[in-house]
Amino acid sequence: MDLKMKKEGKFDYLETGGSGEPLLLLHGLFGGLSNFGAQIEEFRGRFNVVIPTLPIFTLPLRKVSLAGLVDHLADFVAFKQFDRVHLMGNSLGGHVGILYAIDHPERIASITLTGSSGLFESAMGNSFPPRGNYEFIKKKVESTFYDPATSTQELVDEVYNTVNDRNRGIRIVMTAKSAVRHNLAHKLHNVTAPTLLVWGKQDTITPPFVGEQFQELIADSELHFIDKCAHAPMMERPREFNRIMGNFLQRVTAPQPSPA
Fold first, then answer.
1. For residue 241, what are the domain limits?
2. Which UniProt keywords apply (predicted)?
3. Looking at the 3D structure of the chain, how many domains does it have?
4. Is residue 13 part of a domain?
């Protein structure tokens, strides 16, 4: 990626620019902007790809919650003066995106969810992760992927350093518990935008049945599974993920024929 981080007021983000519609990519609890390198390169020619940092570690402690992240996203979209956006969220980012879409349906052109939390999640975060145990963190990070080799040392080191910072570790736990409390089962009927669901067949954090439940509860939705893939399809199977998402975005952005 040849993009540089922008900082404007309380917002940190990457943006490709251009005249295309905004495509907002939302990272997960342990994710970051680097998770979306393949999507930036694939979609920057057609969309203004924007990746805001979710301020899990910078919100005032009293606001550390899923609601605080949704409010931040709403403030960011308003700050950028985006009329309508295409949202794509992985894991916690999907959860944040859905809540924003329910609150602001007029702003949403489409939604893509991959390994989204909001219905069921089995992951590190409900209790304070053991500090100083590098092997434990390494195994947890590797469990995000079908092929453990996808988990680089850089990625493991980043998560390890996060959970060993007590302030950040507390925020991780607070955010994870808030996400568990915000179950979306009774809200998903309010999602009206076209929705793409892309799930790894071997996802153990949000297993395949979670994707099936999302499809049942969101009226205008379609579900695709990717084999030999776990919780982060956009990283582990970027070509297949981009093909599925590209086809979906092409359909939802195609001009609609005028009625006769």
1. 6-123+182-253
2. Hydrolase
3. 1
4. yes
pTM to 2 decimals? 0.91
Q: Does the residue 139 lie in any domain?
A: no
Instruction: Please give the C-alpha separations between residue 48 and each of 16, 20, 26, 28, 51, in angstroms, as whole numbers.
Output: 6, 5, 14, 21, 10
The answer to whether 77 touches 58, Cβ cutoff 8 Å, is no
Distance CA 208, CA 176 (A): 20
Q: What is the dihedral of CA 121, 188, 225, 178, to 10 degrees?
A: -20
162 in any annotated domain: no
Q: What confidence tens digit (pLDDT) does each residue in 65-87 have?
A: 999 999 999 999 999 999 999 99
Closest CA to 183 of 121, 103, 123: 121
Alpha helices, DSSP H, located in 55-197 = 66-80, 92-103, 134-142, 153-163, 166-181
Q: How far is CA 201 from CA 19, 89, 206, 209, 225, in A?
A: 36, 18, 10, 10, 6
Tens digits of residue pLDDT in 11-55: 999 999 988 999 999 999 888 888 999 999 999 999 999 999 999
- Enumerate the β-bridge partners of residue 89: 26, 113
Q: How far is CA 46 from the centre of its chain?
A: 20
What digits encode the pLDDT tens for the residues 95-147? 999 999 999 999 999 999 999 999 998 754 444 556 678 888 888 888 889 99
**CATH number, domain at 28?**
3.40.50.1820
Decide if 170 is inside a domain: no
